[in-house]
Design brief:
Distance between the termini of chain A: 73 Å
Strand order of the largest sheet of chain A: 1-2-4-3
Strand order of the largest sheet of chain B: 2-1-3-10-4-11
Order of helices and strands of chain B: EHEHEHEEEHEHEHEEHHEHH
Helix content of chain A: 55-70%
Order of helices and strands of chain A: EHEHEEHEEHHHHHHHHHHHH
Helix content of chain B: 25-40%
Oligomer: heterodimer
Shape of chain B: globular
Radius of gyration of chain B: 20 Å
Chain lengths: 400, 283
Amino acid sequence: MLKLDLDDLSFAEGGHVLLRHALRSVDVGQVVAVHGAAPALSVHVAAWCRGEGHSLVTADGESAAEKDAVVTIRRGSAESARWSDAERAGTPSLDGVVERPKASWGLAARGASVERGGAAFDFRLNEKRVLWADDAARLYQQAVAAQWDPQSAIDWNAPCDLPAEVEDAVVQVMTYLIENETAALLVPARFLSQLHPHFREVMQLLAVQTADEARHIEVFTRRALLKRDLLGLSTVGGQASLKTLVDEPDFALSSLLLSVLGEGSFLSLLWFLNTHGPDPITRQIAQLAAQDEARHVAFGMAHLEHQLAADPSLLERMRSAIQRRHDALSSTAGLNDLVYDALIVLAAGAWTPAAIRTGFQRVADLVQDMHSGRTRRLLRLGFSDAEADELSALHTKNFM
Amino acid sequence: MTSKTLILGAVAYDPKVVTIWDGFKAYFAERGLDFDYVLYSNYERQVRGHFEAQYQVAWNSPLAWLQAERVARERGRVARAVAMRDTDQDLTSVVIVKTDGGINAIEDLKGKTVGVGAADSPQATLIPLLHLAEAGLEPGRDFEVKRFDKLLGKHGDHIGGERDAAKALFAGEVDACCMIDGNHLLFTREGTLPANGTRVLAQTAKYDHCNFTVLDDAPTDLIEQFVTLLLAMSYDDAEVRPLLDLEGLKQWKPGRVLGYASLERAVARFDTLAPFLAELGIR
């Protein structure tokens, strides 16, 4: 018979931990003799055992272990019954990612042993083929390593004395960026809440992606308010374009429209601001944001390539989605003049006819650069030259 | 609802009661027993409802069992306990004092104040007071009783009264307090009582708690099916386990009534049933 000596440890101080462990070490139906000197030990052990489904044995006092025992306990079957049919939620490694994790695994860590009988969670995104990217783990590691602190990563005291018209243009561009980055935060956040946590690496990556956008919103806001008390204008056309992104319910199509085409175009815009920004702060925040956005585009591409490999018909759905979004936005103004003009003034850097000519040319080059980037990515996804060119041209004039 | 529906009466001592009986309803339905329930806010109305045939099986507190059993006897009827939880068997209550309070034996409570739970709580009031009375100290005469009434009519199913009595011990309002054994462990672990700050002055003999009660006119076939299905509920079954966890048991047991002897002596000694019986015209 197993003897457990609790010394003077009471059940109010954790004595049950040692008893539970001792009971686990004997078979169901076998007994453990509990010794100890804590006051009320017999009262507490009896009450605890009743709740746990163990029974008290009337001691016959014959064996040595039982002699002087405070109480002798026969192990009940409840705990082993609870875990006998538990199920492993895959295995922790990437090889353990299953095609369709069970809803009843819920929030359990991948590889955990899950008790049966729990309520099923409603995770709408629960199929590996529609959300996985083999690159997700690597991209997540990269994203974590590349996190930056807006306070210390940017030299907020750098000189920033622009002509009033150029400063106004910067404020307007920042206002536009904030609105777009807000869409880029909310869209993955909404999918994140529908994602089965079994796909841990994708979940983590989307979480960091939303955190990236939170920082972008912070630095763009801070730059806008550096010299001004108010932000710029928000237009119906701009928001209509973003609303089509927020409203897209399909994860793959959302990846295409937001991550590949939208953030892909934004990547060009941010590098443009990095190159032509009129002050060092604007140039610096654009660079940091562009590095993050490049990862977002990479995940969108990786995820779509993974899904296309299994389901080539996705290409046709992607074509329709681009067309549909174009049609939905055909009656709106597209990128409004005031944002477009602000970009020109920003890239001009000065309020002179010659500078404006330069700024205008730079923005024209930017639009061309965005188109080439989109076309290149569409080609990589499997569209033909002509299709890629045509579909890129249908992309929203709002850039994102 | 048809005449072949078995209806249970239960007291809503906590919102989870609805979850529990809805769960049982589904469990029984899947196994061919048409089961439903009605909830009462107190056991007295539930016991009266039983004799007015508002339902056929009661989930009774030990005091409600004695009430039903007594009314049945007065009216030439028979009440039976058909099933109970494993955790309803062999409970004890304890009388607790402060470790350094200078009370070392039951006799030391003479002239002192003892905190108890609700007036109708078997575990926190009636059975421990009987224990002290049978040890020679008559409540109200040899020591003062301070009641912590919470939710009268629920027969102490709500542990608030016991917790208030325990707090009163350390507020200096009472010299001892009474509670079910498991609550002493609970209150000490949660910090309501300081670890090693209290001592068990007395422990009552074992007694039983709730049971499913039926009267002699209950539909035999439905009751038999009900009890059979209850006893078949297995903790091994993942569908059933959450229900058992919620109701606080590992296994249903056939009903037994030998564990109500001390409560019966308590209600006789303190004349606890009189007001309820008087309402029914029983003296």
